[in-house]
Amino acid sequence: MKSIFSVFFFLVSLKAFGKQATDWQLSFQNPATDLMGSVVGLHNIILIVMTLVTLFVLFLLFYVSFRFSAKRNPIPSTTTHNTVVEVLWTAIPIVILVVLAIPSFKLLYQQEKSESYDMTVKVIGHQWYWEYEYPDHGDFYFESYMVQDADLQEGDLRLLTVDNPLVIPANKNIQILITAGDVLHSWAVPSMGLKTDAVPGRLNETWVNVKEPGIYRGQCSEICGTGHGFMPVVVKVLPESEFIAWANEAKNNYAINEDIKTNETNEEIIISQNNLIKLEENNL
Ligand SMILES: [Cu+2]
User: Which pLDDT score, from 0 to 100, does residue 255 have?
Assistant: First the structure.
């Protein structure tokens, strides 16, 4: 028995490592945001309530099977109604549901919006990669593809590594706008408590404030075709100063929508993979 407990605690302690799913992980990943802390808190409350309810019902089942078996209760009662008991078994579950609904709705609203935002990023799901836009930092955008098995470097996580992660600063309220270019996707990072559907033609909103810099991982969580399992989400959280440096560099490295606007002759359009396409003037 003791060894079972020690294995259990070893497995529980494993989840303290990393900001992604780990082997033999039990329960949630460590919360990276206050929001995820609240999600775990609500989960724990509901788990306790439902365990108590289940145990109570189980006890009743065993009790009636024992107490009112044919052997112990040869002449059954013919009672069919009991108003007090019927009111109780209707009212008590309603009270339990209302009590659970209050923190649950509070959390739903909290997940949807923050009071103020320091910056916005836009996430667009495609078959089968993510696209990230930075409207507040020069309106550049780039695409985030999974790194194929053959190209993985030492230490890279298979199916959870991308060429260009989403980069955001730590300890900032970041508005995340989510949509899709083709079919339904869902942008999910478990340790941040985020899972928002990416719906074509609709702009969904969520937000995040990550406390610690690091690499956080998630996956597309809405089945979107054959590549569904191959479009991981990787979020790199940097201290603010490093983020600003990154954004300045990224503005030059990645496609710059501004160029399209400011280029009067429209001779060059930079596409997202940094290839220059020369377009004939009469084609435009
Ligand atoms: Cu998808």
Answer: 56
Separation CA 175–CA 119 (nearest Å): 6
Strands 233-238 and 166-169: parallel
- CA 28 to ligand 1 center in whole angstroms: 22
Q: Give me the residues paired with residue 175 across strands.
A: 120, 207
CA of 139 to the centre of ligand 1 (A): 24
- Does 267 score more than 50 pLDDT? no
Cα–Cα distance measured from residue 124 to residue 75, given in angstroms and rounded to the nearest whole number: 69
Cα–ligand 1 centroid distance for 21 (angstroms): 18
- Which residues belong to CATH 1.10.287.90 in the chain? 34-112
The enclosing H or E element of 132 equals: strand 129-134
Among residues 159, 132, 133, the alpha carbon closest in space to that of 146 is found at 159
pLDDT tens digit string along 184-210? 999 999 999 999 999 999 999 999 999
In sequence order, the 6+-apart residues with CB closer than 8 A to the CB of 15 are 22, 25, 26, 27, 28, 29, 30
Q: What is the rounded distance in angstroms from the CA atom of residue 31 to the CA atom of residue 193? A: 7
CATH of the domain spanning 119-253: 2.60.40.420
DSSP 28: P
The Å distance, Cα 220 to ligand 1 centre, comes to 5
Q: How far apart are CA 82 and CA 259, in angstroms?
A: 78
Cis peptide bond N-terminal to 128, omega within 30: yes
Domain 34-112: CATH class, spelled out:
mainly alpha
Q: Which residue has the tokens 């030059």?
A: 252
CA torsion sign for 276, 282, 283, 284 is: positive
pLDDT, tens digit, for every residue of 130-145?
A: 999 999 888 889 999 9
